[in-house]
Specification:
By secondary structure, the protein is an alpha+beta fold. The strands form 3 sheets. Strands 6, 7, 8 and 9 form a 4-stranded antiparallel β-sheet that branches. It has a 3-stranded antiparallel β-sheet with strand order 3-2-5, with helices on one face.
């Protein structure tokens, strides 16, 4: 009898422990909880952190993250409006805003991820297919500054951006939230993570880009060579002008010096017979020095005027 009482007491204690364990649940600061009874949600969402009670074995607590959650899209091949096939890789951040509605429509985060795949991938395809490639990859128009030459070179590459990448991302986010308005969640941010050409056309695009940059480089190079030729021409012209002016000035100085020397010689010649004789003597010596050297042989008569001073020296 006593054994039966002991066993019964243990069974009752075990049941009480199970009831106590299943009758309480805790809510973390990062969580929000929905209570269901026989699979159907009851009551309001529990968001206050702490210890809470529920009916054991009948009611069940479902936990949902209150923080921002990540969605990473698949890498999809999408055609643009101008018929260029590209790979688009996207990502988004979302949050459960209405746990009760979220539980009714999606049950859990796995269901939400699958639903977001349909919504965001679909809106991404529609948006990319409705815009040209240049608007998907750029957000604003390029500004060639104030250099007219650069403007002339790249004017054919300055496509007019009327929408832009940022606006397309915002558009996709807005349309996704409209479609997800009854799902108890909200897309907080949406971005293009990577955009690239498909392999079939990537090399063709690279070749075209290289050709375009080579054309721009040739344009700059030809303008630089023309400018260099102009500078060299001006340099040669200025150099010739300087040399001509220097030659003219040298001839003027030489002429003035010759005139002064002639005047001095004439003045000395007219001073006296002795001066004239000295002048004739020095000029004759100069002629000797210019006419005769160690290797020169001259045959003259003894009465030649060239040896007049030599004869006078003998006398």
């Amino acid at each position: 009898m006593k054994n039966w009482k002991g066993i019964s007491l243990l069974v009752v204690l075990g049941i009480l422990v199970l009831v106590a364990l299943d009758g309480f649940y805790t809510v973390d600061e990062t969580e929000q909880v929905i209570i269901t009874q026989f699979g159907e949600p009851i009551g309001e969402t529990v968001t206050d952190p702490g210890l809470n009670m529920k009916v054991p074995f009948i009611q069940r607590a479902h936990y949902f993250d209150e923080r921002y959650l990540e969605w990473d899209g698949d890498r999809n091949q999408v055609p643009t409006k101008d018929k260029k096939f590209i790979f688009v890789d996207t990502y988004a951040r979302w949050q459960i805003t209405d746990p009760l509605q979220f539980f009714k429509r999606l049950r859990d985060e796995r269901g939400a991820q699958s639903r977001l795949d349909d919504i965001l991938d679909g809106e991404t395809r529609n948006a990319v297919a409705s815009h040209d490639l240049v608007e998907v990859v750029r957000s604003s128009n390029r500004d060639p500054k104030s250099d007219a030459t650069i403007t002339e070179i790249v004017e054919d590459t300055l496509a007019d951006i009327s929408v832009g990448r940022d606006s397309i991302q915002t558009m996709i986010q807005g349309l996704a939230n409209e479609r997800a308005s009854d799902l108890g969640l909200k897309v907080l941010d949406f971005r293009f993570k990577r955009i690239n050409y498909v392999e079939d056309v990537r090399q063709t695009v690279y070749d075209r880009m290289i050709s375009e940059r080579n054309r721009i480089a040739d344009k700059f190079r030809s303008e630089g060579e023309g400018e260099a030729a102009r500078i060299n021409g001006e340099k040669e012209r200025e150099l010739q002008s300087i040399e001509s002016e220097a030659f003219r000035r040298a001839e003027e100085i030489r002429g003035e010096a010759d005139a002064q020397a002639t005047a001095i010689y004439a003045d000395a010649y007219n001073q006296s017979n002795t001066a004239r004789e000295l002048y004739n003597f020095t000029r004759t010596l100069e002629s000797y020095g210019k006419s005769l050297d160690k290797e020169t042989s001259v045959i003259l008569s003894t009465d030649s005027e060239f040896f007049r001073f030599l004869r006078d020296m003998e006398n």
